[in-house]
Design a protein that fits this description.
InterPro entries: Polyketide_cyclase/dehydratase, START-like_dom_sf. Strands 1-7-6-5-4-3-2 form a seven-stranded antiparallel beta sheet, with helices on one face. With about 140 residues, it is of the alpha+beta class. Helix 1 crosses helix 3. The protein starts with a strand and ends in a 5-residue tail after the last helix. The longest helix has 21 residues. The chain is built from three helices and seven strands, in the order βααββββββα. The radius of gyration is 14 Å and the shape is globular.
């Protein structure tokens, strides 16, 4: 298994970060080039567990993800259903209050098939996704 984790602390509250993180279609605003559409609402929360989102990234075709964990203000997890070159790709974002801000941990993991390539891809994904989320929150690093 490969796992990559990126961590950053921002000056925004966990509630503010959560409002950006849990707005799936709003990802388009903080991840330039992405087009995100919810194709199935979750239950009982429309953006919660069971939500399926289609993330368009251009020519390779859309990535289809399903939300697997939804703990408001704390944790959002998802898994890829299609469109990702990594086998059994999963992601998890956890939020932890730190003073008046929030520590954001973005972790991605997948089954390991290639010695180094997939690990580099996973590390890059965790960094890029976390940087986009921080931009979306609008609260710079502390």
């Amino acid at each position: 298994m490969i796992r990559a984790t990126s961590v950053r602390t921002v000056s925004a509250t966990p509630e503010t970060v959560w409002s950006v993180l849990s707005d799936h279609e709003g990802m388009s605003a903080w991840a330039p080039g992405l087009k995100v559409a919810v194709t199935r609402a979750g239950t009982p929360e429309p953006n919660g567990v069971g939500t399926v989102r289609k993330v368009g990234i251009g020519s390779p075709g859309p990535i289809v993800e399903e939300v697997t964990a939804f703990e408001p203000g704390r944790r959002l997890g998802y898994r890829a259903l299609a469109g990702v070159p990594l086998k059994n790709y999963r992601g998890e974002v956890t939020l932890r209050p730190v003073g008046t801000g929030t520590e954001i941990t973005y972790a991605v993991e997948a089954d390991k098939r290639l010695p180094a390539g997939e690990a580099l891809l996973a590390k890059g994904l965790s960094k890029v996704l976390l940087s986009g989320l921080v931009r979306g929150v609008g609260a710079g690093p502390r």
